[in-house]
Amino acid sequence: MKTARSLLAGLTAALVATGAAAQDTPLSVDVTDTSAEDMTIAVPVMPTPAVANTVAGTTEALGRQVAEVVAGDLSRSGLFRPVGPNGVRAVSFPEVTAPAYDAWTASGAAALVQGFVRANADGQLTVGCYLYDVALKSELTRQGYVVAPRDWRRAAHKCADAIYARLSGESPFFDSRIAYIAESGPKNRRIKRLAIMDSDGANHRFLTNGQSTVLTPRFSPDYKQIVYLSYIENRPRIYVYDIGTGRQRVVTESANQTFAPRFSPDGRWILYSMAVGGNTDIYRISANGGQPQRLTNTPGIDVGGSYSPDGSKIVFESDRSGKQQLYVMDSDGSNQRRISFGGGSYATPEWSPRGDLVAFTKIAGNFRVGVMTPDGGGERLLTNSWQDEAPTWSPNGRVIQFFRTSQGRSGGSSVWQVDLTGVNERRIPTPLEGSDPTWGPLLP
Amino acid sequence: MNSASLKIVAIAAALAMTAGCGKKAPKELPPAPVSDGTGADAGTGDPNGGVGDAVVPGSQADFVRTVGQGRDRILFETDSYSVDAEDRAVLDAQAAWLQANPNVRVTIEGHADERGTREYNLALGERRANSAAAYLQSRGISASRMNVISWGKERPESLGSDDSAWAQNRRAVTVVPQ
């Protein structure tokens, strides 16, 4: 794959340099390649066949905004160098399905995204999305999305997902949401609020008002609920928050502190940790309530945990050996075995939705985010800062978000993301400071 | 006791702590009670809940005055939750006050420094609070009078990112709820 992409990069460069005509290597990008230059992809404003007003603005304005969101997604993936919508030539509506290839070849773009925004008689929008190989002068994919005008961003994310998937061969991930903890105020009186946003930081919404400290949210697989830790009434316990109704309920009644909650991939179980008399163990309980089942029973701190995508196994953290290390067990608590053996400590394991990797925080001096295989092999560190922790996976298992804490009296936290090459690292914009990001699956 | 003598007790306790060079003594102490410098204020700035001249028996202010400033807590080494001789002396004083105020319930808050992951630190804070509670129980204080809660690294006492700040933040604090 790497060779193919390098070859492509070379060919692309050659095309730019010589203005050569069609070549027959299909366009593709490799998410694991760190050396190749990003593919240049033109994203002009999407025209409208007839300007119409919607609750989200005119179709003409939306055509520009959709293109901006598509270009932003492609840029954040780290694989593409989008050009536009500002500064590239305007496209007429008939041209959307009949690209002016020669003009785009002259611009140096390897790929071209065109589309349109149309208001339908029933009040819905249709957003068309087309991907072209400029050198081969061929269409690579086309998609159409019918959405309510207020959901225009989802159409844009789906368009970007279609382009990403077609060119990388990977599963899509842009049309998804993040829950995280919004933070403000001084370190010793920090206000922490539960908040949600789209994968690009848009449609931001606070879910709690900050009166009680909240931590460590996780989406249910259907996005209808968030399980998290709240200090309501100074009793730290885990709650399930229903996003539709705004109501919440205690997951399990106990005089002991419960924390570190997780949903199972099928949403039927909630994994959590409970501290009893200085000893923390991992439990699971039906998402509908009932009797909890204890999964670990060694002395020490067993905490956190993350299910494999098929729900059969759980990777968790334990200091039973004297330091925090990663362990894997069957989902009923059997067959516990250690998988991390490098120097330092390991914490906050999260199993990739693809199943192939476990992300973690490595503590060895600084706190760094890394990945290893579920049997402990192939350890790679992806970040290097004073304190990066708590990785969460994109729905396709190719990008990781985490939070970064800065030092000192005015130190704060921010949400970041990095891809598996470790090269494409960037901060996710949030209105306040942020921590504990959790990335949900692809939206249903 | 009037507010002037209360202030003197607090300052004396602070001086004793500073001079004591205990291995884990906080380098920065909580501020002394507010004074306008004339000695004429009536203690209205008392942050510990005392009203005017009166310290309500069994209150947080009474607890801190009795056990001594800064002795409402014990401090821990990195990743440790063990209680040493110095900690036991502090907890003995707390136990004596709890024996003298048998109807008071307390919360023991466990904390960790910022150099740990969030969820592990929640567990570690509980371990530390539980260490203090277990010792108090061994001194005759009923477990039913003690509520253990962990704040992990979420509520630091000292805001810096250095060894002395972290030393103050690895703590178990006994608090009389208002």
TrEMBL record, chain A:
Keywords for the protein's UniProt record, in alphabetical order: Cell cycle, Cell division, Periplasm, Signal
UniProt-listed GO biological process terms: cell division; protein import
Compartments reported by the entry: Periplasm
Cited SUPFAM superfamilies: TolB, N-terminal domain, Tricorn protease N-terminal domain
InterPro entries in UniProt: 6-blade_b-propeller_TolB-like, Tol-Pal_TolB, TolB_N, WD40
Signal peptide region: 1-22
Ranges for domain TolB N-terminal: 28-139
Gene Ontology terms: cellular component: periplasmic space
Keyword Plastid: no
Main location: periplasm
Gene3D superfamilies reported in the protein's UniProt record: TolB, C-terminal domain, TolB, N-terminal domain
Purpose: Part of the Tol-Pal system, which plays a role in outer membrane invagination during cell division and is important for maintaining outer membrane integrity.
PANTHER family to which the protein is assigned, alphabetical: PROTEIN TOLB, PROTEIN TOLB HOMOLOG
Family classification: Belongs to the TolB family.
NCBIfam families: propeller_TolB
Binding partners and assembly: The Tol-Pal system is composed of five core proteins: the inner membrane proteins TolA, TolQ and TolR, the periplasmic protein TolB and the outer membrane protein Pal. They form a network linking the inner and outer membranes and the peptidoglycan layer.
Protein name (record): Tol-Pal system protein TolB
Organism: Allosphingosinicella deserti
From TrEMBL, chain B:
Residues annotated as domain OmpA-like: 63-178
Entry's Gene Ontology cellular component terms: cell outer membrane
Main location: membrane
GO biological process, one term: cell division
Region (Disordered): 23-54
Coiled-coil segments: none
Subcellular location: Cell outer membrane
Top-level lineage group: Bacteria
PROSITE patterns named among the record's database cross-references: OMPA_1, OMPA_2, PROKAR_LIPOPROTEIN
Pfam families, alphabetized: OmpA
Membrane topology category: Lipid-anchor
Keywords, in A-Z order: Cell cycle, Cell division, Cell outer membrane, Lipoprotein, Membrane, Palmitate, Signal
Record has Lipid metabolism as a keyword: no
Record field: compositional bias (Gly residues): 40-52
Family according to the record: Belongs to the Pal lipoprotein family.
Quaternary structure and interacting proteins, as annotated: The Tol-Pal system is composed of five core proteins: the inner membrane proteins TolA, TolQ and TolR, the periplasmic protein TolB and the outer membrane protein Pal. They form a network linking the inner and outer membranes and the peptidoglycan layer.
Protein purpose: Part of the Tol-Pal system, which plays a role in outer membrane invagination during cell division and is important for maintaining outer membrane integrity.
PANTHER family listed in its UniProt record: LIPOPROTEIN YIAD-RELATED, STATOR ELEMENT OF FLAGELLAR MOTOR COMPLEX
Entry-linked NCBIfam families: Pal_lipo
Name the record gives this protein: Peptidoglycan-associated lipoprotein
Protein species of origin: Allosphingosinicella deserti
Gene from which the chain derives: pal
